[in-house]
Design brief:
Helix content: 40-55%
Structural class: alpha+beta
Number of strands: 11
Number of helices: 14
Shape: globular
Length: 302
């Protein structure tokens, strides 16, 4: 990345049919992310051979004012008090997973721990059965893994997860609870209920993206601590560093890339973007920009 960054400010590839731009500087990624007049979040994503119509998932694939409206109806559900109410449940789940590894005498930090924790969390948020975790992981692999290069797998997984969410929505309308599904099927936006298609897509995003990004972050953090025993020992000795260490691990191992579509001809760092061009927003690269972060390729837990 450093070699690429030194040779060109914004990379370009023809790997996909339409071609894709990739900003390499933190400043440019942040600027594009906030420039909603020139860059749209309404993007289906790119797959080998070109764009696959995998659907749009609100609010992440929406622009203002729709984006603001959908965030407005979501945010009350994720207030501090409600989040705090999940703490004991999630802490107990983490301890149970660790204890199982201890009792066996060995374990895999990814498949035995990090892949399970977000399943329990998202299940609690959505009010669904965490025992369906294997099915959730299969859908995630079908949408974000194998589906990246196989359109049939992508369509099949998407159809299954949307069908599952449609069933949960029907059940919540009959038996509402305190979960996110019940919240979404009961609220109104500007005096009207959200349509079923929008709710379905919002729930798919919560399930797929919520689990995938979180297990990636947890797994990367555990991998780092396994490779850096001094950091591990220091966090045990100085637990007050944990909040800072969490932020630093998220920076160093940022799990998310998103796409933007160019709405009108514009220039960034001397590069001409044309209407309809695609831009890959590489947050992991931005978060390791040495112009912004001292010792950018290191994890500095304090």
């Amino acid at each position: 990345v450093e070699d690429l960054r030194a040779r060109c400010p914004i990379a370009h590839t023809e790997r996909f049919n339409e071609g894709v731009w990739m900003p390499l500087h933190y400043e440019d990624v942040v600027g594009i992310a906030h420039d909603v007049e020139s860059f749209s979040s309404v993007h289906h994503g790119l797959r080998r051979g070109g764009t696959t119509e995998r659907g749009l998932f609100p609010p992440i694939n929406t622009d203002p004012p729709e984006h603001h409206d959908l965030r407005r109806v979501l945010l009350p559900f994720f207030g501090p008090k409600r989040i705090e109410a999940w703490r004991d449940h999630l802490t107990a789940d983490c301890r149970t997973r660790v204890q199982a590894i201890v009792e066996r005498g060995r374990g895999d930090a990814a498949t035995d721990y990090s892949q399970h924790i977000p399943v329990g969390a998202i299940a609690a948020i959505l009010g669904i059965d965490p025992e369906h975790g294997d099915r959730f992981r299969m859908w995630i692999e079908g949408i974000l893994g194998v589906g990246a290069n196989d359109a049939d797998t992508l369509r099949s997984a998407m159809s299954e997860v949307r069908g599952y969410m449609a069933g949960v929505m029907r059940e919540r309308r009959q038996n509402p609870g305190e979960d996110l599904v019940s919240h979404l099927v009961s609220i109104e936006l500007d005096g009207r209920p959200l349509d079923d298609d929008t709710i379905e897509r919002m729930l798919v995003l919560q399930l797929v993206a919520g689990i995938d990004t979180t297990w990636s972050s947890i797994g990367a953090a555990l991998w780092h601590l396994a490779q850096h025993p001094d950091d591990r020992r220091r966090l045990v000795a100085e637990p007050s560093l944990i909040p800072t260490a969490v932020e630093e691990l998220l920076r160093a191992y940022a799990p998310v890339n998103v796409m933007r579509r160019v709405l009108n001809d514009t220039e960034v760092r001397g590069v001409e973007f044309r209407q309809g061009d695609h831009v890959l927003m590489t947050y992991p690269i931005a978060c390791r920009d040495p112009e912004v972060f001292e010792r950018a390729d290191e994890v500095v837990i304090d």
